[in-house]
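Exam prep: given the inputs below (a chain plus zinc ion), describe the expected output before reading on.
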Amino acid sequence: MRVLGIESSCDETGAAVYDDKLGLLAHALHTQIPMHAEYGGVVPELASRDHIKRVVPLVRQVTAQAGMQLKDYDAIAYTAGPGLIGALLVGAMAARSLAYALNIPAIPVHHMEGHLLAPLLDDPKPSFPFVALLVSGGHTMLIKVSAPGDYELLGQSVDDAVGEAFDKTAKLLGLPYPGGPYLEKLAQGGDLKAYHFPRPMVDRPNLDFSFAGLKTAVLNAVHQAKDDGHYDDKVRSDIAACFTQAVCETLVKKCARALEQCGLNTLVAAGGVSANSAIRQGLSALMAKRGGQVFFARKEFCTDNGAMIAQAGMLRFKAGVRAGLKVDVFPRWPLDTLEAL
Ligand code: KG4
Ligand code: ZN
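Solution:
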């Protein structure tokens, strides 16, 4: 069986073909980043308009890449939320209409479930149950994953998402949007002892996160360096490295606590920020120390993509999940309201 997956929740249009026996057959992505970079962030209306232009050509491209025709699909999956309403509607409309025309089911997929299961696109795959750390531009969550669809929220950010903290800190350091990957480069070679930024909420017993205080500490460090007249590339690199270290330690401590609490020793890290090498190293070191295992998605599947939607769509298709004829999208959609498959 083959599922076409369409992603359009934010600033990337993705399409992919997933086969239940062979896995991923084809995937393609169009990123709008250069278009939004000029404005320093995503402009929702521009995003929607661009998705309209890209979605059909991308579907054609992956269908050809997979050596298929449209009539060969068994179902069409699409991101139904959370995300920008206009952007979501484009992918949902395209998927729902095409499925109707082909007389096959349309399958709504939760974007964060797509991220969470993205590490299953490659081998070795994590086995259930596990603890998932979801770190993206809009979310920071720790989740107990008992089975596909069975998600218990253990903790989340009470203010900024980690990706947002990376992007805001990057902007402060004069880096382009979205800053995460640029900040990672700038941090290389930075002195980890130059600054000690707060590790927010690590002493609290719960599994929630907060990154607003860290952002303020970085802001103060930048102002101080400017006032002292020594704000240069070395200082920027040191700040980037120490910021990353503070985020990394916070994530590691909370992951360790979540694993303890659940009595589990398998960790999955997913979402855009899980592409960060320092964070991957920190989590890998934690799991090596615990004698457990950690799984990441391949770097291109950490950020938004169609492959993760096609894969989650296949799981849901097989479990009998179907979209109605009315096109519904859910800009806000808590992950733990999904039902176990
Ligand atoms: O998962 P994603 O593509 O989109 C959302 O669903 O939000 O995540 C995007 C976020 C952005 O904040 C971006 O700066 C961050 O992930 N990101 C990174 C890295 N690559 C992407 N943050 C830190 N280091 C990276 N290498
Ligand atoms: Zn995402």
